[in-house]
Structure formats: structure tokens, C-alpha cells
Design goal:
It is a single chain. The chain is α/β, with parallel strands linked by helices. It is 23% helix and 30% strand. Strands 3, 4, 5, 6, 7, 14 and 15 form a 7-stranded mixed beta sheet that branches. A 6-stranded parallel beta sheet has the order 10-9-8-11-12-13. A two-stranded antiparallel sheet has the order 1-2. Helix 4 links the parallel strand 9 and strand 10.
Length: 311
């Protein structure tokens, strides 16, 4: 079923927007579909990504990237999901609202056997992890170190890389808890260690870094010849000091992650992996979305991703 574009029905909605002293729950006009590919979604769950906590949202802008919900108006081009479909969505803003308009190219239909919390938490973290593994050229036998392998991107990149046959070392402050949190199949090769306990003779063909700071500085000393470093995030908040002469000596390369858009096809591929239990996304129930107003984001993040209910 396809609906014609309309100027809205005069409803008002609640959304989390940027105010002078942080986020606030504000009343906004009902969003309208302005392009033929636009889909209107009633949002029930949103997820929190670390990058959203430092992004300079515009004053009055509806924040958020990831939202899960139900299609209430499909695209007028006739190619969007039917009204009533359960979908997970991504966009540069607009997720943290009772309704969002999103391109049909940036959503994916969620199968009934998939946990809604996992689907809500998947878009930004999942696609980042998918492209991190692709960009770092991870294949069977690649010796890979992942710094921050328990965060949203890290724990998914760990599973994706291991499923390809890579030899994965997760570098984390709490190896015991990280190991217990990961679901590993018998043929996956995943090791957990702190940066201080890395074997002095260890060599890595690739490093995927989501933390920055001292761990990355120390790990680059273990790069193999023609090794590669992929920068995904800087969750540690610490400046990184690198000995570039060592990188040059090893003919190593360093890149920042660039995720191509739209994301719909990637989301569909990831949901298939979740449905087939080839990867498992750790997503916890964070309660009401008003917690994003009242509590520091750093306290709302744990292992994996936190998901919140849109009331």
C-alpha cells in the first residue's frame, strides 16, 4: 500500500531535542514525507551510540540515529515496505521522536524471530562493524587486534571477523568479563587480553580501534610488516601518541572508517545474520527515553548497546 504525500494532519509529537542545557523532551509538529522514497515510522525503541553524545546537534534539532518501529505511511513510489511492517531505521538525525520520516533506502524490515532490542540497536553500530571488517581486509587467518571489543561496534566486529576465520585478539580493560559476554562458536578463534598482557612477540596484520589513547599507541608496536590500522572511534577520550617512524618502517597504513550510505542493504544483510544466529547483538533494556535527559550518557552505556522505550 502506498500513501500520497500530505502536508501532515496537524498532530504534535514528543521528541528529544537539543536545548541550551542539554537534551529536553519537546513538542514538535508531526513530520511529513517530502520525497517519493520517504516512509513515516511510529517509533517504539531507540538506541544510544557513543558518537551521538559528542555530536554538535543544532538547537531544536531532533537528535538520534537509530530507531525501531512500525510503518504507518509507506513511500509514494510504491517500493517501500507495507504499512504495518516492523522496521529498523537509520538517519543522520530525527530518530529520538515518537515518529520519524526516513528514506526507504535507510531501513530494513525486521523478521518476527528477531529480538526488537537487537534490531533497535543494530543500525549505526552494526553497519560500522560490517564496514570496519571489510575496510581492514579481514579474511581467514588474519591476525586481528580489536581495541574496545565490548562496545557496540567492537563486539559486533569481533564476531564478524571471527566468523570469517580471523584470529581475533580483543584488547580490553576487563578480559574476564569480556570473554564471558561473548558468544563463541567452537571454531572461532577469539582471545581476550589487556594491553599490558599482550605477548611481547605478538604480531597483528590489522588493528581495528574504537578507543584510542595508550592502547592504540602500544598496539602499533605489534604491527606486522604492511599491517593496517583502522580508526573507528575514540571512546577512551585520551589523546593518542604514535611513533610514526615505526609505521613507516613497517610500511603500515592507517585509515579512518568511512561508511557509505544508504544503509538499507547492509541492514538487511546484518538482520539475516542475526536471524540465523551467526552473530548476536548484546542489547540491554535502558528503560524510558527520558533517562537520556536526566542521566549522563556515560552512565547509560555498558557492554554492547543500550536501548530505550519511546513513551
Amino acid at each position: 500500500m502506498s500513501c500520497v504525500l500530505s502536508p501532515g494532519r496537524g498532530f504534535t509529537l514528543k521528541a528529544l531535542v537539543l536545548a541550551a542545557d542539554g537534551l529536553e523532551l519537546a513538542t514538535i509538529p508531526e513530520p511529513t514525507r517530502e520525497t517519493p522514497d520517504a516512509v513515516l515510522v511510529e517509533v517504539t525503541l531507540i538506541s544510544l551510540n557513543r558518537g551521538e553524545t559528542s555530536l554538535p546537534w543544532r538547537s531544536g534539532q531532533v537528535a538520534g540515529w537509530d530507531a525501531f518501529g512500525t510503518v504507518i505511511e509507506t513511500s509514494s513510489d510504491g517500493q517501500g515496505p507495507p504499512v504495518g511492517s516492523t522496521v529498523t531505521t537509520w538517519g543522520y538525525s530525527g530518530a529520538w521522536a515518537q515518529q520519524r520520516v526516513v528514506s526507504r533506502h535507510d531501513l530494513a524490515v525486521v523478521a518476527g524471530n528477531i529480538d526488537p532490542y537487537a534490531a533497535a540497536a543494530l543500525p549505526a553500530a552494526g553497519v560500522s562493524a560490517l564496514h570496519a571488517v571489510k575496510t581492514a581486509q579481514i579474511v581467514k587467518g588474519t591476525r586481528l587486534a580489536i581495541v574496545g571489543g565490548t562496545g557496540g561496534v567492537g563486539h559486533l566486529a569481533t564476531q564478524l571477523a571471527a566468523s570469517l576465520g580471523a584470529i581475533v585478539t580483543v584488547v580490553t580493560r576487563d578480559p574476564i568479563s569480556a570473554s564471558a559476554a561473548h558468544t563463541k562458536s567452537a571454531n572461532w578463534n577469539i582471545n581476550f587480553t589487556s594491553v599490558e598482557d599482550i605477548n611481547p612477540s605478538a604480531e597483528f596484520d590489522a588493528i581495528i580501534d574504537t578507543v584510542g589513547g595508550t592502547p592504540l599507541s602500544l598496539l602499533t608496536e605489534h604491527l606486522a610488516r604492511r599491517g593496517r590500522v583502522l580508526l573507528v572511534g575514540a571512546a577512551g577520550g585520551e589523546k593518542t601518541t604514535l611513533d610514526t617512524s615505526q609505521l613507516i618502517k613497517r610500511k603500515a597504513s592507517m585509515h579512518s572508517l568511512d561508511v557509505p550510505t544508504p544503509l538499507g542493504n547492509d541492514l538487511s544483510d546484518l538482520l539475516t545474520l542475526v536471524s540465523e544466529e551467526k552473530i548476536r547483538l548484546t542489547a540491554s533494556d535502558g528503560g524510558s527515553w527520558v533517562r537520556l535527559i536526566d542521566e549522563p550518557a556515560s552512565q547509560l552505556m555498558g557492554m554492547g548497546k543500550s536501548v530505550f522505550h519511546v513513551n
